[in-house]
Amino acid sequence: MAALGHLSTFGRVTHAVVRGLPESLCQHALRRHKGDEVDFARAEREHQLYVGVLKNKLGLQVVELPADESLPDCVFVEDVAVVCEETALLTRPGAVSRRKEVDMMKGTLENLQLNIVEMTDENATLDGGDVLFTGREFFVGLSKRTNQRGAEILADTFKDYAVSTVPVSDTLHLKSFCSMAGPNLIAIGSSEPAQKALKIMQQMSDHRYDKLTVPDDVAANCVYLNIPNKGHVLLHRAPEEYPESAKVFEKLKDHMLIPVTNTELEKVDGLLTCSSILINKKVDL
Amino acid sequence: MTTEVGSESEVNKQAEQIGSGAAQEKPDEEASESQQNASLEPEEEKRPVSPTASKSPRSQKKEKDPSESRGISRFIPPWLKKQKSYSLVEAKDGVERKEPTEAVVEEPIVEKDESLPEEGRVAKGDAEEILERKRQDVKVDEKDEKHSVSSAETQPAKEDSKEIEVAKVEGIQEDKREGETAKRETKEVQTAELKAAQKVSKKLKTVPCKVMLLDGTEYSCDLEKRATGQVLFDKVCEQLNLLEKDYFGLLFQENDQKSWLDPSKEIKKQVRNLPWIFTFNVKFYPPDPSQLTEDITRYFLCLQLRQDIASGRLPCSFVTHALLGSYTLQAELGDYDPEEHSSDYISEFQFAPNQTKEMEEKVVELHKTHRGLSPAQADSQFLENAKRLSMYGVDLHHAKDSEGVDIKLGVCANGLLIYKDRLRINRFAWPKILKISYKRSNFYIKVRPAELEQFESTIGFKLPNHRAAKRLWKVCVEHHTFYRLVSPEQPPKAKFLTLGSKFRYSGRTQAQTRQASTLIDRPAPYFERTSSKRVSRSLDGAPIGVVDQKEISGPAGDVSVYGPGVAGQGIFQDGDGKREVRSPTKTPQLQFTTEGKKNSLRVEGENIYVRHSNLMLEDLDKTQDDILKHQASISELKRHFMESTPEPRPNEWEKRRITPLSQQTQGRKDHLFKMDILPVKEKQQIPAVLIVEEKVQETDKSSHETLNVVEVKKQAEVGKEERVITEGVNGRDKVPPGSDSGETRKVEPLTHKDSPSLSSENSSSSSSESEEEDVGEYRPHHRVTEGTIREEQEENEEEVEEEKEEQASKVVQCMEAVPEASSVKQITVETVQENVVSQKSSGEKSLKEGDKQDIREETEEEQHKVNGEVSHVDIDVLPEIICCSEPPVVKTEMVTISDASQRTEISTKEVPIVQTETKTITYESPQIDGGAGGDAGTLLTAQTITSESVSTTTTTHITKTVKGGVSETRIEKRIVITGDADIDHDQALAQAIKEAKEQHPDMSVTRVVVHKETGVEEEEE
């Protein structure tokens, strides 16, 4: 049994949890900037494609939760739980309107027989989007949505790993400009805040990570999976959306690259990692 | 050598004295005392002495190593002849002076101490002991007599009346010098009361010692009282049959904190309380345990980690607790056996601080999956998982940041981690850290400028107290050295300009220990994995410590796990084992060997050193006397050299080069310690080549230790040498009369203050260096020599650990005790010269008094060069005028730079040795005018500190003088860097200036000389 941070197991995923998007998303989803209205139909289509990739193309067991109209942001499941190995930390999202999203997630994860830890401290806030797990350690963005206390609770939950904090001020989440694109490989945007954050992460870490710098910050948010028989799999933003960044991804020879369009949800600050929780369950346990 | 002079006559006097004085006092007691004496064995006739000793502890000082007191031994025969009458005298003496109760109290202690040693020891010691005691007695008498002469002020009233009377009768004959000593002794008397027990020959003294082992058993042994940490550690490792021992260490409880026992120092100086109880622990967690050579080493590491985990020091998630627990079961119980392992077999183990049923079930479940793993394999698996834990090998220290927020500093293999609660909020990798220092309860790190930044920054943390800061600093020094360096820095030649610790990690580095491990050639030793049940139980969340020990302390029989048979497989002798293991490497090996020898020397030196202190009284006399003589001879030497060589500076260098330091100084050392350090010395010194010297004036003392982190070590090459000499004289401080002078006055009489923390070896070497330098222009140095020596004694006397603050006060005390003697004058003369320089610079700055400087002891020059780091130079400091002269004969280059051209440069007249090319650049600030100033002022203190690393030798002299109420401090730093890399002189110069400025912002740099010598072979002449 491989417990801690074995690189070979990084990205191993057997299950995914996703959630449908409510129509209320178009009008009421939280968003940092007023902009184009979300085309709900198109958003739904994009989301279905996304789920389809996970389920059909990659063969994951996907748990699809129904949308809740009272929770316009509920499609972004990533923010309400952090799952690492067999432990799931149910967060206390920074946005009050999203706290109820946790409830359904809790039941779902319990059904998956994960060790559940709830963040009950009323002073703590944490969005999963601020949590970057590298396989060796956690980085937690301290943002408008995530505070120190939230990060502490995360550190208490995942005691095996170092948890370092990274100030995030210019974007919604830490993962608004970065994500893991492979074992030991951090995809990072080119903006100054992104690069600055990367520097901090590099300084805080005992490990040396490779970095994959992409021109567009949001394109740096991709989904890496390690799927048996498929190897490195990377869901990244489609060339139609971010052609320059896509070119960078295309240089990853060892990866199975799957372009995914996410134009509509991006309007409400939703990126690729936001819409799923990936879980690695041992088959025989 | 007062002893020689006075011993016989004094004996007589003593007799008289006693006769007259004692008879009056307490006849009854006397009678009983002598009765008691009569009943004792011959050798025990001397017993009364010990009571005497308690009363006048300085007599202990006499107990110095026999070999050291040449003079004394010469007189042994006469004493023996007189023995009879003498001992009578002694008895009376004791009665007369001692409170009966005191004597009684003292007696049992003595008894006990003597009874501790084994027969062998007694047998061996008998004859010697008798002699020694007699000697002691004589000395005691002498001392007492002297004491009586001048001790009126300090002696207890009762004694006073008596002694004064005596003094009138006999004291006339005493010379002044003795009076001086007596004063000092008086001080000792007051402070050394505790040492009375040591009076008895040290050979007989052992101290029971307990070590809690990782498997929960206890190892007991008796240690010689003066044993170093290494002795005990080696014993323990031998007991454990452990060869890869560099990862381990011994902890002892100190207040609430645990501290590592420094192997190089005597235990008794580190551990204040009896009994001596230690815990054997992992000190340096191997980042990759799979690289350990032996399973037994991994086993001990596992035991440590199980403790760490069970106590919560090493946090793990539930899953990891379960997994690690399952490997523990596999290692200790073997394959899961449903029959044998009933449902509750597991609850006897502790896997986690708060272990739940659920966890135990999980452990069992996982245990079943490990079927077939051997214990060693299970241990390996355990370690593979444990090593990934983020807190693996992180030594946490509580602190506050600059804003008072509670944080923790974690020291680990890679650097320094900063935590707030459980969050890592910053991290400083070792390569990023330029300097580590502490000052009082503050701990500082100086870090390299970040990519786009231009300046280094210093980050400060507040530790709970001074001790904590120091402990953290030490741990940092050790971790950095162990994990990052190929070989340790030369053990603290001394701290640079600091009064504080010169501590350095002196053990093997990880690289060395790995190398050594490859040579381990023995069949895998058999060892039994003791069940961790008991261990974990007793741990119960509480870190190992005294409490545990109580709980666990079983019969010594427990240890038999490692029974004799087992030990047989290992290496029997510590010393042998060490050497054997150490011999591998090539170049490093040389270094290494040297190191080893050095260490052992150090140990010895320290012992002797202590003996010195026991003989303080006499020793002081001698020292004082000797120093004078010695000094005189040095001055002569110096004169000689100066006459013969018109150009002192280059000449000095040449000389230095030609003659190994060790040789030059050997006489001195000999004198001090009667040890032949030469070979070692040579090894150490010869390669040293680059010299930086710096003179700075500083307000007051600065004190705190710093470590410059030097990542890369260059192998010294003798062929090519470079020297940089930097000499800066700093602006004197104007000390407000009120503030400094208070202290100043006290100190007024001559004192040489040295870093008290210097070990005997250190000081001896520094003294030797200074002597050498004295040959040239650097006169203060040899003065310093005395200071060094004396300070040493001082230090010993009080057994102080290297805390500068403590020291400072100590020094003052000692200063008071020293009247101005002729030696002072001599010294003063030299001071004048120094002061000439300083006076010029005076007025430059008013320094804030009490401003303490952060002083670096390491040469950053080297660092820069080695690391290719860019040096930031203060351009405004750079000299404006540069003159170059190239003497025709040899490739010699002299560059002198004067700001205001007031100062003359040093021209080369002396033709350097042909094989070398030298280049010298001198910088002098305008404030110096060549001439000299008025009166010399009084030298307050002088100290020399020498530090050495592989390629660098740094010598620092600090002198403080007082002139007309104004005190000035002058710091000279000389750094010799050996290496084959080319040195950019300008850069070196600039760097030296810059560093001096940085280190002593409130002082001014007056002179910097960069001198380079290169082996000609390397040049294309």
From TrEMBL, chain A:
Residues in the signal sequence: none
Taxonomy, superkingdom: Eukaryota
Xref: Gene3D superfamilies: L-arginine/glycine Amidinotransferase, Chain A
Sorted UniProt keywords: Hydrolase
One GO cellular component term: mitochondrion
List of residues binding substrate: 30, 73, 78-79, 98, 145, 268
One matching Pfam family: DDAH_eukar
UniProt key word Hydrolase: yes
Positions annotated as active site in the UniProt record: 173 (proton donor), 274 (nucleophile)
Keyword Hydrolase: yes
GO biological process terms held by the UniProt record: citrulline metabolic process; L-arginine catabolic process; negative regulation of cell population proliferation; negative regulation of cellular response to hypoxia; negative regulation of vascular permeability; positive regulation of nitric oxide biosynthetic process; regulation of systemic arterial blood pressure
Single GO MF descriptor: dimethylargininase activity
PANTHER family, alphabetized: DIMETHYLARGININE DIMETHYLAMINOHYDROLASE, N(G),N(G)-DIMETHYLARGININE DIMETHYLAMINOHYDROLASE 1
Entry similarity comment: Belongs to the DDAH family.
Record protein name field: Dimethylarginine dimethylaminohydrolase 1
Annotated gene: DDAH1
Automatic annotation (TrEMBL), chain B:
Compartment list: Cytoplasm, Cytoskeleton
A molecular function GO annotation: structural molecule activity
PROSITE patterns, A to Z: FERM_1, FERM_2, FERM_3
Ranges of biased composition (kind: Low complexity): 756-768
Bias kind Acidic residues: ranges: 792-805
GO CC term (a single one): cytoskeleton
Chain intervals for the UniProt region annotation (Disordered): 1-164, 572-597, 721-865
Composition bias, Basic and acidic residues: 90-101, 109-148, 721-735, 742-755, 776-791, 842-865
Keyword tags: Actin-binding, Cytoplasm, Cytoskeleton, Phosphoprotein
Regions of compositional bias (Polar residues) in chain numbering: 584-594, 823-841
Gene3D superfamilies: 1.20.80.10, Phosphatidylinositol 3-kinase Catalytic Subunit, Chain A, domain 1 (3.10.20.90), Pleckstrin-homology domain (PH domain)/Phosphotyrosine-binding domain (PTB) (2.30.29.30)
CDD domains: FERM_B-lobe, FERM_C_4_1_family
Name this polypeptide is given: Erythrocyte membrane protein band 4.1 like 2
Organism lineage string: Eukaryota, Metazoa, Chordata, Craniata, Vertebrata
